[in-house]
């Protein structure tokens, strides 16, 4: 039995087509304790896809039936070609573009690019309602910079969504975080627990939140009632929004900074063996040709299999060729 909270799938794919989660880089100017990609200023950028390779992959999205692109990192705005890639994505037919950032690099030029690319929503990571709480997780000065980035986007009329990682040190202040969001002019927040991947791998103090679930759910309910009609609170902690089956590979794809393509970012982070191929060696469509042998291992799995995958022995069994669909239980 996994000790992590059994949270509903974090990805909301389009009704038709696929969602691609693209991590442009693992480099980040921050070094958050819970970072699922293990990003930090010390991470090398040498393995990041080149601008040309990234543009080539973008050109294949339509043929792969991709309708939504979620650009993230690391810190995607740290790439020198970020605006070029963003504008290229924004110019694509029938593609909705979203961006996730820590908010510290957002300049007027970025805001202009967000608007030019018709970005649907900017997700900014904020893990506390004030500098003390946020900076204790993300580093000194991070809150002030993120707050400025939020203000620039909101004042420009862009849709802003705050992503909030629930930890043992901030879970009791969820209502105050929601209050901060409302005062900042934000309409949506997303609350998540921590997956044992990246910097959080092996950090039981960050991941083991099961004993706090009731308190967290009560705090979310209270905030939902207080800010009803003012703030949308997205979360999957009550089990009511769980998909009937895992969407990885079918409606969801992940592209890592080095060009690896996989059915789901969480699966790939827990075990790179879920990779379908690499964009340096083959096209996106070629990677998709190898999808079925990988997704067949968990087709029929009820809900998100991540709590199962967090247990290494079960993870090996789940991706072993020949494993009967839906037979791996928690």
Fold and architecture overview:
The protein is of the alpha/beta class and 330 residues long. The chain has one domain: Alpha-Beta Barrel (TIM Barrel). The chain contains 13 helices and 10 strands. It has helices spanning 51-58, 82-90, 108-116, 131-138, 142-155, 174-183, 204-207, 213-226, 265-270, 284-288, 291-295, 306-309, 312-318; strands spanning 18-23, 66-72, 96-101, 121-125, 160-165, 188-192, 232-234, 252-255, 260-262, 277-278. The chain has a 10-stranded mixed sheet with strand order 7-6-5-4-3-2-1-8-9-10. The longest helix is centred in the middle third of the chain and has 14 residues, at 142-155. 44% of the residues are buried. Residues 1-6 and 320-330 have low confidence and may be disordered.
Features:
single chain, alpha/beta, 13 helices, disordered N terminus, 330 residues, TIM Barrel, disordered C terminus, 10 strands, ten-stranded mixed sheet
Task: Put the structure in a nutshell.
With 330 residues, the protein is of the alpha/beta class. The protein has helices at 51-58, 82-90, 108-116, 131-138, 142-155, 174-183, 204-207, 213-226, 265-270, 284-288, 291-295, 306-309, 312-318; strands at 18-23, 66-72, 96-101, 121-125, 160-165, 188-192, 232-234, 252-255, 260-262, 277-278.
Strand content: 5-15%
Count of discrete alpha- or pi-helical segments spanning 4 or more residues: 13
Structural class: alpha/beta
What number of domains? Answer: 1
Radius of gyration computed on alpha carbons: 19 Å
Mean pLDDT: 83
The CATH architecture is: Alpha-Beta Barrel
Major sheet description: 10 strands, mixed
